[in-house]
Specification:
The complex is a heterodimer of chains A (485) and B (289). With 485 residues, chain A is an alpha+beta fold. Helices cover 44% and strands 18% of the residues of chain A. Chain A is elongated and about 115 Å long. In chain B, a hairpin with a 2-residue loop joins strand 1 (15-20) and strand 2. Classes of the chains: A alpha+beta (485), B mainly alpha (289). Strand 1 (19-20) of chain A pairs parallel with strand 3 of chain B.
Chain lengths: 485, 289
């Protein structure tokens, strides 16, 4: 009996810590093809992000001249020549589907290129790392600095690093709010502390998130917070290009000396010399030689690092390279690797992108600059007039998506002898009431449709209400019903 | 619970010791910062107790340092609405009914206020959307007993109809011709059938006699041609709209017992802006003539 608690304790004891402390990663500087591609993309992405709000686009009078503007107050979204109203939010749905499909397509061809090159987490972390490296030095210096006790030089370095990080983070938040208002005006207001509180609040929030995610969280964001690595693992196959260690060439690992000895003895010798450069340069601290893994964002920096070593040793480069699991396996068996980019999944993704993209282009090309929404009065469904004719009332909203005032002539198509009138709007000579709608505005009017007594034969007849801009020659219509006794 | 902890050969990680149908779970520890964030949220919740209403007490509750209450939110929003309406109300108060009709922006505000006030005050009798009911006029048609222009409607809303306590109220009486003995029972039927013949409805009694009786008793208010008189609120008897119904029995009842439907005067209960807005809205219901 006395032994039991002890035995249970022993059995349930879990080896190792319950919670893992994050291991600080000190990525080493690296030079090479992929590093250059990453720099180019980093500058491109950041330039677009920081300067796009300042690009102007002339839309004529009454409309903003900012190329990209999310006007939440007036509920309009401007993207160069496109103007989207809240009713057309399905364009965003289309864009999101295309974005997802493009991500999947890229993944089926070249793995996590999004993670490695284009994701904002990667781009800003890369930028923050560059700042850190510039101030605190490369990997060894940083490890050494962190292990030293606090002294004046260390404090100066740390303070200036965090100050620059915060400055970048602040600029990031600052650029964000410029997408929601006229950029030059807002910049002016921000400087003179006259901008709306909301602007300062969002700058504050984004400064904090940028600083925390790119400066402090870094790879922890990818490892623990991002859902994409989990989804990606389920979407990939052995034909996708991944940053891969070619174990068929690398194994068994041994030093240059050992390799010479092994070759002399007729034993197999791999090209990997266990220099650990691939791990040292890795921004997420993984060992690529373990194969594709959750932590690997496939940025290709280990390829550059390994190539540098291989060149020095006079061995062929690309021991680590973009390659498929299938190709490496085939090569290790002495077969010729086959690369198949056209597969069922790539075709399906392409077709879906094409279909949705095509549909969106069609909708945009044929986009109406007017609209009409009709609601039939619920009570009363119909009214008997003094002369016995029957009248139905409708609430009609006319949308004018052009930047000028337009006149819409309202007509009704349906039962014989149906006449239309608009409350508060005089009818013109040809019995068509003309409703004036302001530029880029909507107008709600009460529309009355009357049908002579002898023409009302059924309880419900379909009718069509049409609003026509006779000047532009555009007409929109909506179907509804005309009710009688 | 199985507690068989072992080292996993592939990963080198130990298992949690739990096993479900042969599936074992690796002990992959959470990152420390994640756990720390959890502690931070606990601390945060304590902050909530202090600044927001949180704990029930024997009578009442802890109110919190911010003094927040959802009722306070509502009051604030109502005040904001009042302030917002204040500007529009000032404009409406100054504008004449014709000004409102000519100014679409003002008319829109008046319509909105009128619609809300109609729902609160008028719907019980006149029905949702002004559909009316037997004895309560339908406001969406083009027949107005006391006039359908803006001024007439405003007058009706302000002072009511046959509303004894309002000195400006409009009065017009449909007398109880049968009950008071002015017309005998058969004479009532004759006059009813004459009126029915004007609208080509079926008749039983002597229409010719009814015509004479009509001229003697009814024409003074309803007119020689039966088209009514808005000044005394005498309905048009030759149109397709019948306030109390067009069946013969109902009409006999009306002539025998008379009618005197009442509309309350709203002055004093509703402010001038609301009444003006109601006039605009109701005028719009009926076509805005």
């Amino acid at each position: 009996m006395t032994n039991t608690p002890h035995a249970v304790e022993e059995e349930t004891f879990i080896e190792g810590p319950l919670y893992a402390s994050a291991k600080k990663i000190y990525p080493q500087r690296v030079q090479g093809t992929y590093r250059q591609i990453k720099w180019a993309l980093l500058f491109f992405c950041l330039a677009v992000y920081y300067f796009l709000p300042f690009v102007r686009w002339d839309r004529g009078p009454n409309l903003p001249n900012q190329a990209v503007l999310l006007d939440l107050e007036n509920r309009r979204f401007y993207f160069f020549f496109i103007e989207i109203w809240p009713q057309e939010v399905y364009y965003f749905t289309g864009l999101l589907i295309i974005a997802a499909m493009t991500l999947f397509l890229l993944n089926s061809i070249a793995g996590r290129v999004w993670c490695g090159y284009l994701c904002w987490q990667t781009v800003w972390t890369d930028l923050f790392l560059a700042v850190e490296r510039h101030i605190e030095g490369d990997r060894r210096d940083r490890i050494k600095l962190d292990s030293e006790p606090w002294h004046a030089r260390k404090i100066a370095k740390k303070v200036s690093k965090h100050a620059i990080w915060l400055a970048i983070a602040w600029w990031t938040g600052g650029a964000w709010v410029l997408y929601f208002a006229d950029a030059p005006t807002l910049v002016n207001q921000l400087i003179r502390f006259e901008a709306p509180f909301l602007a300062y609040m969002w700058i504050g929030i984004l400064t904090a998130t940028t600083y925390v995610f790119a400066g402090i969280m870094r790879e922890q964001t990818c490892l623990y917070m991002c859902p994409w690595p989990r989804i990606q693992a389920a979407l990939t196959d052995d034909q996708a290009l991944n940053v891969a260690y070619r174990y068929d060439r690398g194994e068994p690992r041994m030093s240059v000396k050992e390799a010479k000895r092994a070759v002399a003895a007729g034993d197999p010798a791999g090209d990997c010399v266990e220099c650990l450069q691939c791990i040292n340069v890795c921004p997420t601290g993984v060992d690529i030689r373990h194969g594709s893994q959750l932590g690997c964002i496939q940025c290709g920096l280990c390829i550059d690092a390994c190539d540098t070593v291989m060149k020095k040793l006079g061995r062929p480069t690309r021991l680590i390279a973009y390659d498929t699991d299938d190709a490496i396996l085939k090569r290790s068996r002495g077969e010729t690797p086959v690369y198949r980019y056209i597969r069922a999944r790539t075709i399906i993704y392409l077709v879906m992108i094409g279909l949705i993209g095509g549909g969106m282009i069609y909708k945009l090309a044929t986009r109406m600059t007017a609209g009409i929404n009709v609601i039939h009065d619920r009570a009363p469904l119909f009214t008997t007039l003094a002369d016995g004719s029957i009248r139905n009332a409708y609430t009609v909203r006319i949308l004018n998506k052009r930047p000028e005032v337009r006149d819409f002539a309202l007509t009704v198509e349906g039962p014989l002898g149906a006449t239309i009138e608009v409350v508060g709007v005089p009818a013109t000579a040809d019995w068509r009431p003309v409703v004036e709608v302001g530029p880029d505005r909507t107008r709600e009017v009460r529309v009355l449709v009357s049908v002579p007594k002898d023409q009302v034969k059924e309880k419900s007849v379909p009718i069509t209400l049409r609003a026509a801009d006779l000047f532009v020659g555009e007409s929109v219509s909506a179907k509804d019903h005309f009710f009688g006794p | 619970m199985a507690t068989n902890i072992e080292k996993d050969a592939v990963t080198g990680t130990s298992t949690t010791g739990h096993e479900w149908d042969g599936i074992k779970e690796l002990n992959t520890p959470l990152p420390k910062w994640w756990v720390n964030l959890f502690y931070v949220t606990i601390l945060w919740s304590i902050g909530y107790w202090i600044v927001y209403p949180a704990w029930p007490l024997v009578s009442g509750y802890t109110t919190g340092l911010f003094g927040y209450s959802t009722r306070g939110d509502v009051v604030e929003e109502l005040n904001a609405l009042k302030a917002k309406r204040g500007q529009n109300a000032a404009a409406l108060e100054k504008a004449s009914l014709d000004d409102i009709k000519k100014n679409p922006a003002l008319a829109q505000v008046a319509n909105a206020i009128g619609k809300a006030a109609f729902g609160d005050n008028c719907v019980p009798c006149h029905g949702i959307g002004g559909a009316g009911a037997k004895g309560y006029p339908n406001l969406t048609d083009d027949d107005w007993i006391w006039g359908g222009d803006l001024a007439a409607i405003e007058q009706t809303v302000k002072h009511g109809i046959r509303w004894a306590t309002n000195k400006d109220t409009r009065v017009g009486e449909m007398m109880a011709f049968g009950k008071s003995g002015i017309l005998k029972k058969d004479e009532v039927e004759q006059v009813v059938d004459f009126v029915r013949s004007l609208s080509k409805l079926d008749t039983k009694a002597d229409v010719a006699k009814g015509k004479d009786l009509y001229a003697a008793n009814c024409a003074s208010c309803h007119g020689d041609d039966g088209k009514g008189n808005k000044d005394v609120g005498a309905p048009n008897l030759v149109d397709a709209i019948w306030l109390f119904g067009k069946d013969r029995d109902t009409m006999i009842d009306v002539v025998t017992n008379g009618r005197g439907a009442v509309m309350p005067a709203w002055t004093g209960r509703l402010d001038a802006v609301t009444i003006k807005s109601l006039a605009v809205y109701v005028n719009g219901l009926g076509g805005g003539k």
